[in-house]
């Protein structure tokens, strides 16, 4: 059994205002060129095209290349430009236990630990264990007069709003975090440097299929990329491809978030907060989440609703009212996060890919040999990216997955229902 050890203190884990790693410190690759491939690789490499530069596509490409495939990653905009760059990056070992995703989540959490050791996660992309708390908080009519309602020692000192019922729901052995954009871009950078993955920036137009087998990927503009296998990791944009939308529905859940940089970043301890937040005007409580990051920033998310997914991920903007509510939540939770005490670094939204049965779709497309799909991970995409990618690599190269049993995720389940 893995025993979580304390990560050594570093300038990244104990940031100062002059020693923080930023997103720009990890190379964003938008070139279609790639370094030459090692001579010792097999003469007949399997050519695999992975469509989608989010965490699922990048993890799949990474593990495929490690298994010796010749991999081309196709992304319309830029790597981790959508949910994989705007998510919370929260990881949990056992929160999916008892459900269909339990084995996937546990395998992926352990892979995150391995990848952190392999890629120097604490320094490269902010991997660290967390204590995770659940608590109820009431918005005051006069937010300036908020004060901590109890001296509960389980609460970190920076949480000074009117809270009650705090309880620990995750320990440093069972919950952790990454900076999702840094994680995804670190992984693809290593994949290019170490395994010669080619990245092509272009929009998928269609797949060429002959004799019931995928033959190539065709991009807008006419470029054809021949392939032995194709993996479609399109997230909520799966609904835009008829091959997939004719089999099952993937809809987008629009989630909002803000990123704050408090003046006194050293006061914010690594405690993730899952809130039951009661607005001052009454009405139903909402369930925002708060994630301090070792970059010195604090990420807050919530205010989700199903919405139409735009064609271009760069067109996604947040709803002003949802952003306003999150700012109110921030200052209610902590005086360190209020206006004047914290700078707003980002106001954003992204689309989480969801399926009608709440279970990801991972496997070969029925009736199309060599064509695979991996999507529908909802809010657990960052957590489940590594095991999904490793399982897809095994499925494509070996014909079966050993790291996770993929039967529950097979897209053929939708065909049977029809």
Primary descriptors:
single chain; 418 residues; alpha/beta; 7-stranded mixed β-sheet; 6-stranded mixed β-sheet; 9 helices; 19 strands; 23% helix; globular
Walk me through the structure:
The protein is of the alpha/beta class and 418 residues long. The chain contains 9 helices and 19 strands. Helix 1 packs parallel to helix 5, helix 1 packs parallel to helix 8 and helix 3 packs across helix 8.
Walk me through the topology.
Blueprint: E1 47-51, H1 55-66, E2 70-75, H2 83-86, E3 90-92, H3 102-119, H4 121-124, E4 128-129, E5 131-138, E6 163-170, E7 175-177, H5 180-195, E8 198-201, E9 204-210, E10 213-219, E11 224-226, E12 229-232, H6 242-245, E13 250-262, E14 271-278, E15 289-292, E16 298-307, H7 320-333, E17 342-355, E18 361-364, E19 371-375, H8 381-398, H9 412-417
Helix pairs in contact: 1-5, 1-8, 3-8
Mean pLDDT: 87
Detail the poorly predicted runs: 1-42, 143-151
The value of Rg in angstroms is 22 Å
Describe the strand arrangement of the main beta sheet, using strand numbers: 6-5-14-15-16-13-17
* Helix proportion range: 10-25%
- Give the distance, in angstroms, between the N- and C-terminal Cα atoms: 42 Å
Strand percentage lies at: 25-35%
Number of helices: 9
Given the C-alpha coordinates, what overall shape results? globular
The succession of helices and strands, N to C, reads EHEHEHHEEEEHEEEEEHEEEEHEEEHH
Largest sheet: 7 strands, mixed
Q: Helix/strand-derived class? A: alpha/beta
Question: From the structure provided, what is the oligomeric state, counting identical versus distinct chains?
Answer: single chain
By DSSP, the count of extended strands is 19
